[in-house]
C-alpha cells in the first residue's frame, strides 16, 4: 500500500482524508493544515494524525495529496516533488500557467508521477459515454451553481468552468485555435458568470457557460457529431446517446424515421450505455495509485491539467 498524506483539511480535504482511510490502495499516514486549531479539532474528532510540520508529513509518505487553496498549490506541489514524492493535486493545478509548467518540468526531473483532480473525468455518466464521443463538431456545456462563498477567491472559470474545459479537451483531438469570452462580476470581486466560445483547428466549436449565482444547480454537456447526439448530466449522473442510421426498407411500426428534403430516410435509435454508479473522488485517487503501481500515465496528467489551465486563462484574459 502507498503511504499518503493530505495537505489541507477544509471541506474537500476532509473528504479526501475519509476516502484515503477507506481505500485499500493507500495507507493514510496523516495530514497537515496551516490552521493548527482546525487540525487539532479534526484529529480529535476523526482520529487522523495531525502533523504540525509540513516537511515532516512529506517525509513520511509516498504520495502527497494537495487539497489546499489554489494560491498555495505551486509551493506545496514543488515541495512534494523535490522531496521525491508522487503528487495528487486538486484543480486547478496552479494559479498560473508558468507555475504549472514548472511543476511538469520538476516531475520529469525528479521522476515522480502527478495527477490533477479533475473529478468529472470519473463521473460515471461521462465515463459511460466518453468511448462513444468520436470527433464531435459542436459542444455545449452549462455548469450552474447556487451561490457559495467558498471558491469566490478565483473567477468562476477556475472555480467551475474548468471542469468542462478539461472534459472537452479530453475528447476533442485537436489544438485550440481561438477563444472568445465574456464575464460579469455580480457579487464577487471576480466574474461570477461567464460564457466562452472555443474554436479548434479541426473546426469543432465548444460553447461553455458557467455561473455561481444561479437559482438552481445544473451540470450538463451535449456533444454533436456526425450521426449522433450525446448528452451528459454530470449532476444526475445520467446520459443519453441518440444515433442515426440508414432507414430499413420496411420500417417497423415503432421505428422513428426522418426524411430530408432530398428524400433520404434515416432511422433514429437510442444507444444508451449502462451507467455504473461510483465514488468519483475515490476512483480518481485509486486510479492514481494504479498509475504509480503499474508505471502508467495518470488519467489526468499534470500536462493535461496545465492545458486546461492554459485555456481557462485564455478565457479569463479575453473578458471584455
TrEMBL record:
Chain ranges of the Gfo/Idh/MocA-like oxidoreductase N-terminal domain: 3-118
GO molecular function: nucleotide binding
Pfam families xref list: GFO_IDH_MocA, GFO_IDH_MocA_C3
SUPFAM superfamilies given in the database record: Glyceraldehyde-3-phosphate dehydrogenase-like, C-terminal domain, NAD(P)-binding Rossmann-fold domains
InterPro entries registered for this protein in UniProt: Gfo/Idh/MocA-like_OxRdtase_N (IPR000683), Gfo/Idh/MocA_Oxidoreductases (IPR051450), GFO_IDH_MocA-like_dom (IPR055170), NAD(P)-bd_dom_sf (IPR036291)
All copies of domain GFO/IDH/MocA-like oxidoreductase, residue ranges: 153-216
Protein name as it appears in the record: Predicted dehydrogenase
Organism: Salinimicrobium catena
